[in-house]
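Final report, closing paragraph on structural work. Over the funding period we assembled a curated collection of sequence-structure pairs, and we close with a single example.
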Amino acid sequence: MPLDPQVESIMKEDKERNLPPYNRLTPSEARRQMLELSPPVDPELIAKRVRQLKIPGDSADIPIRLYYPDGNPPFAVAVYFHGGGWVMGNLDTHHAICHALSHTSGCLVLAVDYRLSPEHKFPAAIEDAYTATCWVAENGGSVQADANRMAVMGESAGATLATVAAMMIRDRGGPHVALQVLVYPVTNRDMITLSHTNYAQGYMLTHEMMRWFWDQYLTGEEAAEHPYVSPLRAENLGDLPPALVVTAEYDPLCDEGEAYASKLAAAGVRVRHSRYEGMVHGFFRMTARVDRSREALGEVAVQLRKALQMG
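Its predicted structure, as stored:
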């Protein structure tokens, strides 16, 4: 279908700013620009309380931020990993969507400020994702979380971290994860799909931008074969948590996200896939201005409630 007019309006405003693409900036410049462009908190979608702390990591403490819903503890918990190509993003860039997720789903949202590339290349980010998820299971009581009702979720590169954390828990032995929510995930280093060709330029995320992210994240091309880098290439996707996979029509990552949903299903994983027609990469955080973004937020909230047995 045609590009959504509400999204088209946002894209027009971005073009008029005449900002350089992220791949033409240094990592520190790209991070600063992403923060400046981050949407404000929607006053209609606010968590009841926000708390920040640090948890032990394998080489340094990992900052986390907790978004508490209304209601009585202990709360079902969604461990959330932000997007940004493993290079950009932090607790502040995705502050608004975490508020919205907590408010809409009724979950305690635990956002993880994992290590970024190129300073900390693969596997630093996935180790932080795994560590944070295990920490919740072991220390849930200290933050009013019910570790028996836990999901992992993320957007873009963060969705990759979510599904890889679930794989690591399966492979290493770990806590029960009831659901993985993957919003336009990165699943394959190849970047040779039709959506990468058709939407290479002009739709928020570009093919060249994605190539730059990969170059920052990996130390060499041989790492691209690892299932924790390219989950779509994994030989075994069985025994993973049920998944909600959200894709956007005008997104270079659309095809690889949908291929991953299909491969999960073929491996016996219960999968719900929703493609949002007329949407672009990043639309999930446009809840203040895009109707279909609120629709996607609502779908995620419903699936979290069902999977986490929230009535």
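Residues 5-307 form a domain with the Rossmann fold fold (CATH 3.40.50.1820). The longest helix spans residues 291-307. We thank the funder for supporting this effort.
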